């Protein structure tokens, strides 16, 4: 029986980085030229049947801003499935960003592509630095059951290009790896004597990896122009190569054919982050920590505060600003593209990234302020100093709210709607009477407005009770003497609450006593600094490193106690090397002062840490470490829509140099918001609002290390310890901004718990940690230029309100609450946050309809969600 001919599917495409060592401005200028040429080529040559526009619908938005007259041309070619685009808005990273960012990226990308006639139903990921373990489930819920990618799989566990990829929840997709990269067929020779040797070598390597007669041969590379004579070249291939059949194709048709031919596929499970054949740059999680912090804060703000409050506002009769929210998300998607979010860019490009974050944050802050104000001004209230507290989670919350306010000179007590006095403290206070009152505008001079004799801008912390689920409640200032005064700072060295006692030791470490068990843990909160000989893609230690610890450094401490918290203020002075040259010589000539506040609050199981430091050193890394008593084999962290269990040391470490891996297989890992180690009886967890990177270290793997920042001086470097060989990126581009010289701020939290992992409810704790109660102050004397004046509204809302409430028992974790995109219903997205337990969602007096992530396709309403299972509900 004759062997079937190899069918070589030649896929014309471009991989379009929206920015990298170049800026978005340059990319857009050349994109306009590129798309214009694609349109002309496909319209004028019927033999040029297909072209893949990198699966990024944002390229359509970019092009049509300048050439709106070409929309009809694009619609015709996309509807005919000749130009392939979608399902992404931008080619997003999957490990650095949040699950909601991934979902919204696909939602907007698919919606835009469909509005042009067709969205490619392929999880096409040509260059992302690793694949998240939950992607099969996400793809399936967007109607995508095939996956085409490059990076993340080694031949140690996959000998062929075709396999079944199984996600954390058990969802499966048919997967094909592009084994040698998306640019593999980008340089086709045209000389008669060159073509056949080229095909035999290039296609021959693909045949050796394939398990069917089909191979994927991509013709394109970064920002590549269309190869106009490609159909003629393919005809020549068929003439000179009798052993193979060459066809011009696109990913959907290719995957349909190869899927029908593939049999007995191996199954790979979980995330794909192996760097043997292609670099995955596993430490981009901490590249440009300042930009990573902005991304993480804004992502959390949008999904944990802004969208739920907008949902509350809509339920009270206000318009839901879909287009404004979409604009905010699209700014985030532009920054979520794999180079942009990685920080693997020139400094000028990262300045563009920062500005988009600024725009997104400004839009979000002001949109939130407007809707809180529209609600507050319609609430019945008699008090001059009234405050509305918003709870963005679908269950009753109590706890602490920290906010800025304008205060009177008089003494006051804070009371809730029931008249109960609330403990509070004023952390900062500045007199601004003239400035604030001069901003006031008398829209109605006949109305008498109370103007305080003095006005102070202040930062308050208030302990509040039972704020209604997904709703609001009021508290107000009773202008009487405060009975719960603060205490002055004291020269003592310990703080405590009902969970912990924390002692500052002479060697500048903390000793934490866990009161429920009486266990004492020493060597807590140690700052470790070492060199970074890496670049914008990879952390890599210097060949001559010097590790500096905060243990034994110069340190002072004072303690403040007030009605709501105990605060330990610690000042540390670490002496560190100025640069890698000093480090190699063992010299330390630069002071790195750290100001650390450690905060305990009554009833709060978290220890809160705030770190301010002044960085004047170059090319180094700073981590904070917490010692546990658990010798760990595995770490546990949250991932998009679930948790993930990872080994603390990879077996590939024994063979990577011998096998010549592209990167050292390190256990520096990503997370969404926390990392945990535990056994059957107790556990330790670090939560972060900043960099999402951790490592389990120590001789017995018993210490959690959270990366705060790392710095470097070049976009790319050669011959790193952790990444041998060529440079990634451009080695001639210096990145002085990436040295992050100046003042830096970090926040994180630590928790000890008894019981097992599921008992600790860590995902819920993380959600609350990243979903602060939000406050709006309404007062007539503030109505003016300072916040824009607003007319009076009829008071018609009650002082408390709740939209709906989720039952508390083994409740699935909340990922998103928002208004549906295409109806007046509300969306509640949840997932199972447990290791072994099932979870469910019940809402009193509401019927839940399950839909896919696209919000339109009906799904089975699964009563009990299993491990990492994700479900979206429509609430009408």
From TrEMBL:
GO molecular function: alpha-mannosidase activity; carbohydrate binding; metal ion binding
Annotated keywords: Glycosidase, Hydrolase, Metal-binding
Domain Glycoside hydrolase family 38 central: 279-357
Signal listed as a keyword: no
InterPro entries: Gal_mutarotase_sf_dom, GH38_C, Glyco_hydro/deAcase_b/a-brl, Glyco_hydro_38_C, Glyco_hydro_38_cen, Glyco_hydro_38_cen_sf, Glyco_hydro_38_N, Glyco_hydro_38_N_sf
Alphabetized CDD domains for the sequence: GH38N_AMII_EcMngB_like
GO BP of this protein: mannose metabolic process; oligosaccharide catabolic process
Keyword Zinc: no
SUPFAM superfamilies per the UniProt record, alphabetical: Families 57/38 glycoside transferase middle domain, Galactose mutarotase-like, Glycoside hydrolase/deacetylase
Similarity field: Belongs to the glycosyl hydrolase 38 family.
Name of the protein: Alpha-mannosidase
């Amino acid at each position: 029986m004759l062997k079937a001919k190899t069918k070589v599917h030649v896929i014309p495409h471009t991989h379009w980085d929206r920015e990298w060592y170049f800026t978005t401005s340059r990319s857009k200028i050349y994109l306009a030229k590129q798309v214009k040429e694609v349109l002309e080529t496909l319209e004028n040559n019927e033999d040029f049947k297909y072209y893949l526009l990198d699966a990024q619908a944002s390229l359509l938005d970019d092009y049509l801003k300048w050439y709106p007259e070409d929309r009809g041309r694009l619609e015709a070619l996309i509807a005919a499935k000749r130009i392939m685009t979608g399902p992404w808005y931008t080619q997003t990273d999957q490990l650095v960003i949040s699950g909601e960012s991934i979902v919204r990226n696909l939602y907007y990308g698919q919606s835009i592509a469909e509005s042009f006639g067709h969205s490619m139903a392929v999880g096409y990921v040509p260059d992302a630095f690793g694949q998240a373990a939950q992607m099969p489930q996400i793809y399936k819920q967007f109607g995508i059951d095939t996956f085409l990618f490059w990076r993340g799989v080694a031949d140690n566990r996959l000998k062929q290009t075709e396999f079944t990829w199984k996600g954390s929840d058990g969802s499966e997709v048919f997967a094909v790896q592009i084994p040698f990269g998306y640019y593999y067929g980008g340089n086709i020779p045209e000389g008669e004597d060159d073509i056949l040797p080229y095909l035999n070598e290039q296609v021959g390597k693909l045949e050796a990896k394939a398990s069917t007669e089909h191979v994927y041969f991509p013709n394109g590379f970064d920002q590549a122009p269309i190869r106009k004579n490609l159909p003629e070249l393919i005809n020549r291939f068929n003439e000179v190569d009798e052993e193979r059949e060459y066809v011009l194709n696109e990913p959907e048709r290719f995957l349909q054919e190869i899927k029908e031919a593939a049999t007995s596929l191996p199954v790979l499970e979980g995330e794909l982050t192996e760097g043997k054949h292609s670099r995955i740059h596993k430490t981009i999680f901490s590249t440009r920590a300042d930009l990573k912090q902005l991304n993480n804060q804004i992502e959390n703000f949008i999904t944990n505060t802004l969208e739920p409050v907008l949902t509350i506002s809509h339920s009270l009769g206000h318009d839901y600003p879909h287009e404004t929210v979409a604009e905010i998300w699209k700014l985030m998607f532009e920054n979520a593209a794999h180079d942009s979010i990685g920080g693997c860019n020139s400094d000028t490009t990262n300045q563009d990234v920062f500005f988009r974050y600024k725009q997104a944050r400004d839009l979000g802050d002001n949109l939130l302020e407007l809707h809180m104000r529209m609600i507050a001004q319609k609430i019945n209230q008699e008090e001059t100093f009234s405050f509305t507290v918003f709870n963005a989670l679908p269950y009753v919350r109590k706890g602490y709210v920290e906010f800025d306010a304008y205060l009177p000179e008089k003494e006051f007590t804070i009371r809730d709607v029931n008249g109960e006095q609330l403990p509070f403290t004023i952390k900062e206070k500045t007199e601004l009477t003239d400035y604030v009152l001069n901003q006031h505008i008398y829209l109605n001079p006949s109305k008498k407005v109370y103007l305080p004799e003095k006005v102070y801008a202040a930062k308050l912390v208030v302990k509040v009770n039972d704020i209604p689920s997904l709703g609001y409640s009021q508290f107000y200032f009773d202008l009487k003497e405060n009975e719960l005064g603060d205490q002055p700072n004291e020269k003592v060295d310990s703080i405590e609450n009902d969970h912990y006692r924390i002692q500052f030791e002479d060697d500048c470490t903390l000793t934490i006593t866990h009161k429920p068990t009486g266990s004492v843990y020493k060597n807590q909160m140690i700052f470790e600094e070492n060199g970074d000989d890496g670049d914008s893609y990879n952390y890599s230690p210097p060949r001559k490193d010097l590790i500096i610890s905060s243990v034994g450094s110069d340190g002072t401490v004072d303690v403040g106690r007030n009605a709501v918290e105990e605060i330990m203020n610690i000042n540390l002075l670490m002496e560190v090397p100025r640069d890698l040259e000093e480090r190699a010589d063992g010299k330390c000539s630069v002071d790195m002062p750290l100001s650390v506040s450690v905060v305990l609050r009554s009833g709060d199981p978290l220890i809160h840490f705030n770190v301010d430091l002044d960085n004047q050193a170059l090319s180094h890394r700073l981590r904070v470490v917490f010692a546990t008593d658990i010798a760990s084999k595995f770490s546990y962290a949250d991932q998009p829509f679930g948790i993930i269990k990872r080994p603390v040391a990879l077996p590939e470490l024994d063979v990577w140099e011998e096998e010549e891996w592209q990167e050292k297989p390190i256990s520096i890992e990503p997370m969404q918001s926390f990392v945990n180690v535990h056994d059957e009886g107790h556990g330790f967890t670090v939560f972060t609002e900043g960099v999402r990177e951790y490592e389990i270290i120590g001789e017995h793997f018993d210490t959690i290390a959270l990366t705060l920042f790392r710095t470097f001086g070049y976009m790319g470097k050669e011959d790193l310890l952790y990444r041998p060989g060529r440079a990634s990126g451009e080695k001639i581009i210096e990145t002085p901004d990436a040295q992050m010289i100046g003042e830096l701020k970090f926040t994180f939290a630590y928790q000890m718990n008894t019981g097992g992992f599921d008992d600790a409810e860590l995902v819920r704790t993380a959600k609350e940690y990243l979903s602060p109660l939000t406050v709006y102050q309404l007062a007539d004397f503030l109505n003016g230029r300072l916040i824009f004046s607003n007319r009076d509204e009829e008071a018609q809302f009650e002082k408390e309100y709740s939209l709906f409430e989720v039952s508390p028992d083994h409740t699935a974790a909340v990922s998103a609450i928002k208004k549906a995109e295409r109806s007046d219903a509300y969306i509640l997205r949840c997932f199972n946050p447990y290791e072994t337990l099932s979870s469910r969602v019940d809402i009193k007096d509401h019927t839940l309809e399950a839909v896919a992530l696209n919000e339109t396709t009906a799904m089975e309403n699964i009563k009990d969600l299993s491990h990492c299972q994700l479900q979206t509900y429509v609430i009408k």
